[in-house]
Design brief:
heterodimer; A: 337 residues; alpha/beta; eight-stranded mixed beta sheet; 32% helix; B: 324 residues; four-stranded antiparallel beta sheet
Chain lengths: 337, 324
């Protein structure tokens, strides 16, 4: 684990695992095999023993392809899923086992910005009520005071306060995402989990929202967990990057370090596949072969070995663990074992 | 024909596609001209609503009511597509001009096997027996890198992954050896590593057979690598076109400049990004002047007049009053 000057991390995730059962009831479980009835019990291995830390003021980017478990992990941290195993420590307290009123204060401290600004705002509520709701729930403000706070927040996220009486459908995608950000800020959180907050927006709007998120981070001293598949965005906004593959963290390092020197073969593959304006020649990416295996039956050994270029015998047998290559650069690969 | 001499396969001039809605006229495509040579890959870039896809559909004459192609010429292989009858167009669509759509999930029919769908396309446009068509379909699946095509040909679309489905769509599109392929955001729905695979495949097929291709996308970094020529669209107009290195390295239109500047990853980390203020205007009853004026930092009085594309350096065209 990483040693830091300021001691306890804001959020510490310890060996968190989340599995979803596929067969929901007894009738789906029963199958006939070689003339005998059997009970099937299959699960989707969405998150498999993930450990990471987020420190105050950091922006940790969680990177990976769709289906790698990054959104499931984000929702587990938020309390929308209960982990199958493992522990989540927030500011020194274990929160994954808390429910009801014990969990309530932590819900306020961890807020979320969603990917799709169209489905994440209630179409029947006015902006005033959407942004005011978290204040009501957490008892931060009400009545006149709440209205004033909402108008203030709207101005902060770069919107005309007169928009408070409008409905979500009257806004463009970028404006809705601003409302989503204002709603997250309304609870006065410490940690904001942003799940692909700009991927649904137009190119010229993306930079606006990124700028807004960085401004808000400075102003409210926020800590971000930024879930994304867009590496150029991640490179710009994050301080640390964790790369996920099939529910495992395969590499975790500081942003500049990982972009300058990616170590895990999957990270290298991912970085080489992203088009960038630095090189204008079309590069044949022939080395990229195969597809992500199904998370129902995880490959034995290293989860990446069926696609890996430098696969060794040991990779097929033993699952590697996340180990430091240098002080602060963690890689889960037998090449560095 | 002059076009044939320099391998020109498609020439669009002055294309206008308008939508006549109750609230006013939407000029989705407003006076667009460009041309395409054999084996050339042209990238059509812009934000959603800029008119990129409508340009693609206009070429295939797939514009539904209340839309209408009101002016212009689309010369394909020496013939004006806008003068063709619907019957003649049916022989061109999917045969000489093929289209690849964004979402392979919806462009394949879920109730037919992959094989049936490829065979259908082959039988429709080519004179072959069912048996020949099936053999050809297996070859096509092999050529797009589907493992064990003999077995997979009888699978249904849901049994394929997104990347594999897009490969099948590419197989169908290339089955008739078209002269032009229009690909509308073909890799947007795919994951990055799969996107790289599919794009390599498409580029190889196209370059190998000298097929011309129009790639419609919002991703300017992708266009920079994949295409030969770039056309930048904004609010229904073509604002800049030219060879990719010119456009990416020395963009002239303020919109292109802003787009390229605002891409993160190349600027100082964790600092404010350059951004284009505001958003694209509503296309209903647009003023005649430059559509980008409300967001432009270099705008002046002259911008209220319409700027036409002008060649400022060889092959580099810009529609901006201040550049000409």
């Amino acid at each position: 684990m990483r040693l830091t000057p300021d001691g306890t991390p804001l959020l510490r995730v310890e060996e968190v695992t989340k599995h979803f059962p596929i067969q929901k009831n007894i009738f789906e479980k029963i199958t006939l095999k070689r003339g005998r009835l059997r009970l099937l019990h299959q699960v989707v291995h969405a998150v498999n023993g993930v450990s990471l830390e987020i420190h105050r003021g950091e922006t940790l980017a969680l990177v990976g392809e769709s289906g790698c478990g990054k959104s499931t992990l984000a929702k587990t941290l938020l309390g929308l899923h209960r982990p199958t195993a493992g522990a989540i420590w927030y500011d020194g307290k274990e929160i994954s086992s808390l429910t009801g009123y014990r969990r309530h204060p932590f819900q306020k401290r961890i807020q979320m910005i969603f990917q799709d600004p169209f489905s994440s705002l209630n179409p029947r509520k006015k902006v005033m009520d959407i942004i005011g709701q978290p204040m009501k729930i957490h008892g931060l403000a009400k009545g006149r005071q709440m209205n004033d706070r909402v108008l203030e927040l709207l101005a902060k996220v770069g919107m005309d306060p007169a928009f408070a009486s409008r409905y979500p459908h009257q806004f463009s995608g970028g404006q809705r995402q601003r409302v989503g950000i204002a709603r997250a800020l309304a609870a006065e959180p410490e940690l904001v989990i942003a799940d692909e907050p700009i991927s649904a927006l137009d190119v010229s709007i993306q930079a606006q929202i990124l700028n807004l998120m960085m401004e808000m981070q400075e102003e409210f001293r926020l800590t971000y967990l930024f879930v994304s598949h867009d590496l150029s965005v991640v490179k710009h906004i994050s301080t640390r990057v964790a790369v996920m593959y099939l529910g495992f963290i395969v590499e975790n390092a500081e942003t500049e370090e990982i972009f300058a020197d990616p170590r895990h073969p999957y990270t290298q593959l991912l970085f080489s596949a992203i088009p960038s304006l630095d090189r204008l020649e079309f590069e044949e990416v022939a080395k990229i072969e195969g597809e992500v295996p199904t998370p129902i039956q995880l490959p034995a050994g290293c989860p990446f070995h069926p696609r890996c270029q430098s696969v060794m015998d040991v990779c097929r047998r033993e699952r590697p663990t996340l180990q430091p290559v240098f002080s602060d650069h963690l890689v889960s690969c037998h090449l560095f074992g | 024909m002059m076009g044939a001499a320099n391998n020109e396969i498609l020439r669009i001039s002055g294309l206008k596609t308008y939508f006549f809605t109750r609230r006013g006229v939407v000029k989705a495509v407003d006076d667009i001209s460009f041309s395409l040579r054999k084996g050339e890959i042209l990238g059509l870039v812009g934000e959603s609503g800029a008119g990129k896809s409508i340009t693609g559909f206009s070429i295939l004459r797939l514009i539904d009511e209340p839309g209408k192609i009101v002016a212009g010429e689309i010369i394909f292989e020496g013939q004006n597509l806008l003068a063709k009858s619907e019957k003649e167009m049916e022989r061109i669509r999917g045969n000489r001009i093929a289209m690849i759509f964004q979402d392979p999930q919806t462009s394949l029919d879920p109730v037919f096997t992959i094989g049936q769908q490829i065979v259908e396309a082959l039988l429709l446009h080519q004179n072959m027996s069912l048996k020949e068509a099936r053999h050809r379909a297996i070859d096509l699946l092999r050529s797009v890198g589907i493992p064990s095509p003999d077995d997979r040909i009888d699978d249904y679309p849901h049994q394929f992954s997104g990347g594999m489905r897009q490969r099948v769509v590419i197989a169908i599109a290339t089955s008739s050896n078209p002269a032009l392929i229009i690909a509308d955001e073909p890799s947007t729905a795919l994951d990055v590593t799969i996107q790289a695979q599919v794009l390599s495949l498409m580029r190889n097929l196209v370059k190998h057979r000298q097929t011309a291709m129009i790639l419609i996308t919002h991703d300017i970094a992708l266009v920079g690598q994949f295409c030969d020529t770039i056309c930048v669209m904004y609010a229904g107009r073509l604002v800049e076109k030219g060879p990719k290195t010119e456009i990416i390295r020395s963009p002239l239109h303020p919109y292109t400049q802003g787009l390229i500047r605002s891409i993160p990853g190349r600027q100082q980390r964790r600092k404010r990004l350059d951004q284009i203020p505001g958003m694209m205007p509503n296309l209903i009853d647009m003023p005649e002047g430059c559509p980008f004026l409300p967001r432009c930092e270099q705008g002046s009085d002259g911008c209220h007049l319409r700027a036409h594309l002008e060649e400022v350096s060889p092959n580099h065209w810009v529609a901006c009053i201040r550049r000409s």
